[in-house]
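Hi, here's the filled form for the chain we discussed.

Project: internal
Contact: R.S.
Residues: 246
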Amino acid sequence: MDWIINDELGLTVGHVVGYVSASFMVVGGVLPYIPQYKQIKQTQDAEGFSLHVCLALLIANSLRILFWFSSRFEIPLLVQSVVMNITMFIMIHLCVTVRRNNAIMRTRERVFSDFDSRYFWNWTDFQSYLDFMLVVWVVGAAVTYLMLSLTWFMETIGFFAVFTEAMLGAPQFLRNYKNKSTHGMSICMVIMWTAGDMFKTGYFIFRHAPMQFWICGTLQVSLDLAILLQVYIYRKNPPRSSHRGD
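And the returned structure, exactly as it came back:
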C-alpha cells in the first residue's frame, strides 16, 4: 500500500512541478522588464535602455511562433512568445512617449513609411513600430505557408529564432560599451535576465526541447554575464551628459 501512495504522491508532485515550471516559462521572461519599466517611468529617462533589445525579442519570438507550425514544441513556449511580444510593445510605447516628452526642439517626424534606413527602429511614433512588425508577420506567415513542407527551411527558421533571442543582450552590451557606462540600465533587469535564462536553458535540456533551444540558451547566459561584468567595470564612470538615439 505504501508504494502505491508514494507512486501517487510522486505523480502528483511531478505534475505540480511541471505546471509551476510551465507557468514560470510563460511569465518568467517578462519579469526582468518590470524594474526597467518602473525605472524609466520614474526617471522619465529612456536613454539607458536600448530599443534594439525589443527588436531582437520581437523578431525572435515571431520566428519561434512560425517555427511552432513545423516543430509543434510545448505550448508554454508558444504562449511565452505571444506574451513577450506584447511586453516588448509596452516597453517601446513607454520609451517613445518619454523621448517625445523630453525632446527640447520639435523635429521632423521619423516614421516607418518614409523608408529611410538612417532612422530604422529609431522612429518617433509608436505606430511605425507596429507597422513594421505587421509587415514582418505577414511576409513571415506567407513564406512559412509556402515552405512548411521543407524540413531544412523550417529548422533554419527555428535556429534563427533562438539565435536572435540569444543575442538580445548584444545591443545593450554595445550601448554600454559605447557609453562606457551602464547608467539608465536596470541592474535588477540584467540579474533577472541571467537567472531566468539559466532556468530556461535548464528547462530546455530537461524537457528535451530541440537542440537549437539549449545551445542558444547557453550563449544567452554568457551574454548576460558579460553585461554584469560591464556593471562592475564601469561602476565608477559618470553617465554621459547627452545621448544619441539607438
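Let me know if anything looks off before we file it.
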